[in-house]
Amino acid sequence: MDKKSSGLNLVQRAMNLGAGLTMPPPAAPPSDSGLSRRQPVDHLLFEPGRISGEAMPIRPERPAAPELRLNYARCRDDKIICPGNVDVTTHNEFRTVKRRRLLAMQEIKAKRSNANAIRVTSALPGEGKTFTALNLAITLAAERNLKVLLIDGDAVNPSLTSYFTAGEEPLGLIDVLAGKVAKVSDVVHPCADIGNLSVMFAGHG
Fold this sequence. Notes:
By secondary structure, the protein is mainly α. It is built from 7 helices and 3 strands; from the N terminus they run ααααααβαββ. Strands 1-3-2 form a 3-stranded mixed sheet, covered by helices on one side. α5 packs across α6. The protein is globular.
């Protein structure tokens, strides 16, 4: 080390050592294909996940649901009205119930916004809620100008899936309430065997 160098501090000596080196040009920043070049940088302030580096949750796309059809064997066993399996007594009884319900809905339509909603319930299990709701829905769907949505609201003991070929346990009402589906229409399944009938199963949360 010469006398000239000894009088320099550490930073100055480091600068002198690097003076003769050729520095490579700075690397270009990685391009972000998802961000338009014309997009202002301030727009990133509205995307905290990108600023902090945290991964944003992405909802996976569900595969298309299989076509929903009636389980004819189960319907026959439980005397559910369906095409090709019309029990005369059951059919006539529910046609009477349907006519009375339609008349009642017309009378209260001007007073209530939900006049077209029918709830079937009971005090105890096994009293025929599913039998009544399913037969009534199928009978109402026979009307040309009616679209019927049958909803299984029994989260504890759902039973509608056994009357349809729904495949694995489909998403339904519980998943809508839990915010697990983007749109309600994603869990409304049109029945291929009955044109005016759609079904929303209870779901599995």
